């Protein structure tokens, strides 16, 4: 379980190099990773529901992503996590994460989301 959480965080953090230089945003993949770290068990299917700490991180991340560039950067960070085969993210759990936490995210968390269209 700890190994899987570490792999998820490593995949998200690696996108910092890819996304950060191209975006004019205060959001970073490091911030996304920190806020979603406690969500790793739920995202990988090891937990039945997100924990309170996970949901607090989802809320904080949603509040921090208050501009279009920030939301696009967060989306790209999540896409980078999806693109790593070693993460084991459960697509259904990822898609349901925000609603499970009672947070309204203005785009679907999915490997098929076009982050350039997130506003």
TrEMBL record:
Pfam families: Tryp_alpha_amyl. Keywords: Lipid-binding, Signal, Transport. Residues 29-115 form the Bifunctional inhibitor/plant lipid transfer protein/seed storage helical domain. Residues 1-25 form the signal peptide. CDD domains: nsLTP1. One of its GO terms (biological process) is lipid transport. One of its GO terms (molecular function) is lipid binding. InterPro entries: Bifun_inhib/LTP/seed_sf, Bifunc_inhib/LTP/seed_store, Plant_nsLTP. Plant non-specific lipid-transfer proteins transfer phospholipids as well as galactolipids across membranes. May play a role in wax or cutin deposition in the cell walls of expanding epidermal cells and certain secretory tissues. This is Non-specific lipid-transfer protein.
